[in-house]
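Example (one chain per record):
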Amino acid sequence: MAQLDPAILEALAAIVGETRVLTDESSCEQYGLDWTRFYTPAPSAVLLPGSIEEVQAIVRLAADQNLAIVPSGGRTGLSAGAVAANGELVLALDRLNTLSDFNLVDRTVRCGAGVITEQLQQFAEEQGLYYPVDFASAGSSQIGGNISTNAGGIKVIKHGMTRDWVAGLKLVTGTGELLDLNRGLMKNNAGYDLRQLAIGAEGTLGVVVEATMSLTRTPENLAVLVLGAPDMQAIMHVLTAFQAEIELSAFEFFSEIALEKVVAHQDLQRPFETVCDYYALIEFEQPNDAAMEKAMALFEHCVEQGWVYDGTVSQSLSQAQNLWRLREDISETITPWTPYKNDISTVISRVPEFLAEVEAVVNQNYPDFEIVWFGHIGDGNVHLNILKPEGLPIDEFKAQCGEVSTWVFEIVQRYGGSVSAEHGVGLLKKEYLEYSRSALEIEIMKGIKQVFDPKGIMNPGKIFDA
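Predicted structure:
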């Protein structure tokens, strides 16, 4: 672990307090790593500021001393965007966790960067409203991190990404200046929208310290269907059929291997006895009986067409929650296999052929690798999870998966897709950025970073090497 000059540690302690400067091995390991497991955390210190002013003071000191900073939220990222492996200062925003200035007319609330996603969801519910951005890590991910990665999740098909719910945000730049961007306005065409630049920038332009988040109405009586299908093309036919008749709030998919592992390790029941290659999970509102009748008619139509072999529908809230767990518990379930994750996307209509090509390449070259598929098929985003075979050293596994990634991203490039649909680039996808972005785009990104962060101290080495 890198050692800081005692004078710098003393200066940092003067800003945040001695107990808020952590240098012990346990804290550095805890705060220096996200959910990726291919890097060794090695920050020089972990800082826990309690105000925006303290964040500004830390950044100014870091800029003066040329010290790199890694902003840290809930550390639930999957691309090593919050990894501090080279003696950086970790700026953990856990204490900026207040909710304030709720406005019922505007349906907005001000959130500190450290507010947990679930905390915001519960607050919205208490006000009779709804925050729709949702994912498996909602109980630990933080709003600042969600904004910095433009988190998506399971409701994107209806409600969009995190950026669609950020009415305003405050950003501390790499020089310690505070930008108050958009200020909650619904319409604002006065020049460039710098707020949108900060969203998804993975902390490379500055530290998101506060955001004004939008809320919406609470959905009425959500119902969940799980349908079994013979192949991905059938899944797409089901999506087309349901979307034509019903406004969906979610359309997810997962493979039989994914279902097998979740059922075996999470004490859950299979949705039905029929074994299928793929499964679709569909969520929609049913404010009245007519909505369910329409859904059942669509289900029967899909069965008649041979697109669906079997299915089940929730009869209660608890059943709906258990059906969701079949999809939402996949990531946690496969963690012991140290999965190498690829978060890829293309246009929705091309997903079946896209997925088939990717799977064929992996199976042909690494037949011993087990592949778990799942994703937000309704928005063209699929998650390829390659599980590490028992006994294979992790460095060798990572190297082999890196070779797989090159082949996979060549397919992504051919389909005009993205090497990172929602997890961000971080360290893990950095060398593959050119498969989704042109050389000119990357140079413009570097120029933008130079403006926001002239000394290059904000999360250096993430997304690209400046």
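Caption: DSSP finds 15 helices and 18 strands in the chain.
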